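Quick one: structure tokens for this chain, please?
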Amino acid sequence: MDQITSLPRSRAGRPTREQAEARHAELLETALDHFLDRGFEQATIEAIAASVNMTKRTVYARYPDKASLFLAAVRRAIDRMIVPKGKLHALAKDDLESTLVAVARLRLKQLMTPEGLKLQRIINTESYRFPEIFVEAYERGARPIIVFIADQLRRHAAPGSIAASNPEQAAAAFMSEVVGGPVRFAVSGNFMSERKIEERIAFTVRLFIEGVKTV
């Protein structure tokens, strides 16, 4: 769970804005843990509230039911997995291979953190009940990266060095192979060393580039 910094209270005893935001973040982080550990059906607002020393009334004042609390917790986790546009575009290199390696490293480093894996497990176990969380994770997290890679493929296709008849589909296939495999492996509880991750990235990037080269 994120470390929530203790902030001084205002003179009147009411929480400051910073305190309120920190308490809300703590609630959502704790809720995500409860939903992951117990599943949506077994998790309760009562237990979540007790874990952060809140009353049920306080939680219900913001979230009218368990589903709305669940979605808020998952959306916060999705927000934290979004790569800022500026950071993404800073990865563009003069050669395609270096760009693809940089993107793969960034995304894997992000998703294979405890927080990233927690989100993936929640999506895997609860998206049948809440299909919107899968859609949002893709549209807000994965799709901008795919669009960026597709743009890079078009850029490098211009001189005629590679073929880019369907750059979006090619970019999606690349991300599925280079990121999806290792993340699924980690989500299942298996450990993958940094050396193995680097080997996977290097192999997949080379294989992909060979596949899109013009004959």
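The CA atoms of residues 49 and 57 lie 9 Å apart.
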